[in-house]
């Protein structure tokens, strides 16, 4: 590790950390790749109307990922909020300026009970009301049919290709039922960027909108993509910060600003993602995980298992399970002690889980071995 590692943070009195969690927002989300940094630096040299840049950058991204239209947003969460606003207020400027007051609008977003998740809060920020359908046991076609009512603005779907839920109503059926009743379908597919055919897949299936977190492709953390039909993306643009200033229409998207550097950076990131050698990327991630595991073999009570998933944004990983009676500490102890070390290593035990997942996404060269050795040292190895 270089002697000046994290120096810019240390000057401020903050402690830089080694990221063993992955592409999480609380640690910064991403490190822009060289192609993105170069594109962003070039964007500094001139000013440009952002309504025009949004249009042209969106067209470029849409062409690369084979969807009708795209729009660059302030993260995937912003894309969800703007899409919800577009579903409720459409292109009516009076309604756009009325939000988040939804009086006189269809303001209900349907979501399967089994698909409630941490980020569905982003749908409510525009003023929408989330209405559950189905149950914890499962969802039927009839559940959706009966849930659609006079105030239904859209049906929201949470897509997780790497861990599909057979008890949830499929997206295919969701689109079929919703569209037959003139209802929009929105999909949160923030991490569904690999295999490449999954990038934009849900719009090609017939959904009106899906989001992508561009940070997973090497763009800045604060950039997201709204993909969708031309009509849906046009309406999303009308609710955005660029429209707020460019058209002088006070939509709810004003706080969700994206700068010109980030926009061209997003284009560069998607271009590189769609053309890069993913076999090399996957091999590198697997090797880093194997290096962590190598340091942990033979520790009583500790089990380190390779995650072989390559779908989505987190390729490979290591699951750590622990028998406290044998190991002499709990997983929570491991997390705390790693954070207390120098430099701190951040891991976590998520709610409802009895293991630690380590991802290679955020590791700088050599940090995989540091992580493995530091964990091993906790157990005297």
- Taken from the alpha-carbon principal axes, the silhouette is globular
Count of folded domains: 2
Give the CA-CA distance, first to last residue. Answer: 21 Å
Q: Average pLDDT value? A: 97
Largest sheet descriptor: 7 strands, mixed
Note the run of SSEs as H and E.
Answer: HEHHEHHEHEHEHEHEEHHHHEEHHEEH
Query: From the 3D coordinates, which CATH architecture of the largest domain would you assign?
Result: 3-Layer(aba) Sandwich
Would you state the CATH class of the largest domain?
Answer: Alpha Beta
- Helix count equals 16
What share of residues is helical? 40-55%
Structural class: alpha/beta
Radius of gyration: 22 Å
- Main sheet strand line-up: 2-8-7-6-5-3-4
**Please, what is the CATH homologous superfamily of the largest domain?**
Type I PLP-dependent aspartate aminotransferase-like (Major domain)
Poorly predicted sequence stretches spanning 5 or more consecutive residues? none
Beta-strand percentage?
Answer: 5-15%
What fold name goes in the CATH topology slot of the largest domain? Aspartate Aminotransferase, domain 2
DSSP summary, beta strand count = 12
